[in-house]
Write a structure and sequence with these properties.
By secondary structure, the chain is of the alpha+beta class. The protein has one domain. Helices cover 24% and strands 19% of the residues. The protein is built from two helices and four strands. A hairpin with a 5-residue loop joins strand 3 and strand 4. It starts with 7 loop residues before the first helix and ends with a strand. Keywords: Plasmid.
Length: 83
Amino acid sequence: MRDNFFSEECIDEEKRRVKSQHEKCPICGFSLVATILYGDIGYSLQLSEQMEKREVVLGGCSIHPDMPRWQCTKCGTKFYKVR
C-alpha cells in the first residue's frame, strides 16, 4: 500500500485554515466553497465524505505555490489565497 502524501490531520488542519479565510465565491456569491487539495492524497472514508459534502475537491498531484486554494461548488470558479 502506498503512503499518503498528507495525513488526515494535515488535511483537516489545512481545510480549517483556508476555510476560515473565504466564506463565499467572489464571482457568484455562493457560500459553499470547497478547499482544493493537491498532492498524492490517499483515499479514505473521511476524504470521500468531505468530497460528497463538497467541502474539498482534488486538484491533482502537482503542487505549485501559485495554484488556486478554493473552488466554488456552484459556478466552478477557482480562486487564490489572500496576499
